[in-house]
Amino acid sequence: MSAFAHPRIDPESGICEYYSAGQCESCSLMRTPHDAQVREARDRLHSLLAHAMTPATVWEEPLVSAPWGFRTKAKMMVRGTANAPVFSFPGTHEGVDLADCPLYPALVTDVLESARALIRRAQVPPYNLDKRRGEIKYVLVTATQTEAMVRLVLRSTSALERIREHLALLDPRVSVVSANIHPEHEALLEGAEEIHLAGEKQLRMPLGGIDVDVLPRSFTQTNTAVASELYAQVARWILDAGAHTAWDLYCGVGGFALSIAHEARARGAHMDVTGIEITNEAIESARGSAKRHGFAGAVGPLTTPEPSVRAHFDTADATEWARHQPNLPEAVVVNPPRRGIGDALATVLNSSGVHTIAYSSCNPETLAADLARMPNYRIARVRLIDMFPHSAHNEALVLLTRATAGER
Predict the structure, then answer these.
(1) Of 63, 150, 146, residue with least CA distance to 105
(2) Is 362 considered catalytic here?
(3) What is the rounded distance in angstroms from the CA atom of residue 258 to the CA atom of residue 285?
(4) Contact call for residues 207 and 255 (beta carbons, < 8 A)
(5) Rounded CA gap, 336 and 313, in Å?
(6) With helix as H, strand as E and coil as C, how does the chain read?
(7) Looking at residues 146-162, what average pLDDT do you find?
(8) N or C: which end of the chain has fewer CB within 10 A?
(9) Quick check: 30 and 391 in contact, CB under 8 A?
(10) How many Å apart are CA 81 and CA 86, to the nearest integer?
(11) Structural domains of the chain in order of their starting residue, each with its CATH number
């Protein structure tokens, strides 16, 4: 029996009715009990990483998500008509509305329903892919436990004035509203132009001991609860390794770097951490968060008795930036996209001599390939990250240490 009360979940089987009816198959492992999903994913990860493990490798307990209500981001395709908009996922049946998908917490569902009311009142026609007509393509929601950001992806600016007139229909917990203009007929989710419509310019998102400023086009994790513990875990590993300098490559809005700085401050330790991300908006978010937390100042020498902590962020390609640094840190964090860090960065790190590397992977297959390119490192610790229950998508966190001559 499901312990999560939701009108779309069968109380006996614990299975979502959209899945049972064949209306949505996004959760491909729905009929497998959640604990079995985690166990099987851990077994697959063990097989993938066997070549980089030693008898001393420690397997941490999996970081397990709540099975329902964990997705704090919604990306809803808008179908139907202006009078009856339908919110669905790409690839699902056109007439099935999924705004109350049980993967979403109640706040996300409430915000989606208020966005539906706005679309109806403002008479914004959904974009029709076949006819290439209409205005609104997607509604994107990012939520914390108490507030939310709404982005309306539009074909043009023609409906903006009508939308502005009816913004009061949005749920009062919506603190950021913007329109993304995406005129092209293509599969990309959003366009290049973002127009602020109402409220704050960014959403402040708590992530454990820190909070980060999230601008509309910044990437954030979909499962905030699991991401918070993931960031904290890496921070503990880096500080436990005795590092006082670190890089956070592919840093996004700075979750890992800021968590490392926070952990260092809590321990009374020196820390100088640099985050690198290719997206300007993410770096702008990270810098604002660092300043607000008091991590943006100059770091003092490690010999001073009073510990100092700095988190610094720059926009750059991670591989090219790392390749040209004259001074190496004591620890590196990498959190690449699904393609992994690739041969070039793996080669840079493998020959760097850095003692400690924490690799947060959203694709264990490319993680395994990257580790094969880094024979100078061995897995000291590994943890399965259950970021997306009911799907075959799992993530992994590994702590790498420099191999001894006898281990290579």
Answers:
(1) 146
(2) yes
(3) 12
(4) yes
(5) 16
(6) CCCCCCCCECCCCCCEHHHHCCCCCCCCCCCCCHHHHHHHHHHHHHHHHHHHEEEEEEECCCECCCCCCCCCEEEEEEEECCCCEEEECCCCCCCCCCCCCCCCCHHHHHHHHHHHHHHHHHCCCECECCCCECCEEEEEEEECCCCEEEEEEECCCCCHHHHHHCHHHCCCCEEEEEEEECCCCCCCCCCCEEEEEEECCCEEEEECCEEEEECCCCCCCCCHHHHHHHHHHHHHHHHHCCCCEEEEECCCCCHHHHHHHHHHHHHCCCEEEEEEECCHHHHHHHHHHHHHCCCCCCCCCCCCCCCCEEEEEEECCHHHHHHCCCCCCCEEEECCCCCCCHHHHHHHHHCCCCCEEEEEECCHHHHHHHHHCCCCEEEEEEEEECCCCCCCCCEEEEEEEECCHHHC
(7) 98
(8) N
(9) no
(10) 8
(11) 1-28 (no CATH), 34-66+223-407 (3.40.50.150), 73-201 (2.40.50.1070)
Give the span between the Cα atoms of 218 and 279, in whole angstroms.
8
Q: Which of 16, 101, 251, 362 is catalytic?
A: 362
Task: Give residue for tokens 């708590």.
Answer: 206
Residue 3 pLDDT exceeds 70? no
* Residue (of 41, 148, 134) closest to 104 by Cα position: 148
pLDDT over 50 (residue 1): no
Nearest-angstrom CA–CA distance, 138 and 72: 16
| 90 vs 78, residue with greater confidence | 78
- Per the listing, tokens 């908009």 go with 85
Q: Sign of dihedral through CA atoms 259, 142, 33, 337?
A: negative
CB atoms within 10 A of CB 233: 22
Q: Determine how many CB atoms are found less than 10 A away from the CB of residue 7.
A: 8
How many Cα neighbours within 13 Å face the side chain of 297? 9
* Entry pTM: 0.93
Q: How far apart are CA 218 and CA 98, in angstroms?
A: 24
Bridge partners (DSSP) of residue 331 are 246, 356
Residue 300's pLDDT is 53
The arithmetic mean of pLDDT across residues 322-350, rounded, is 97
- Phi, psi of 210, rounded to the nearest 5 degrees: -125, 170
Measured in Å, how far apart are the chain's first and last C-alpha atoms? 50
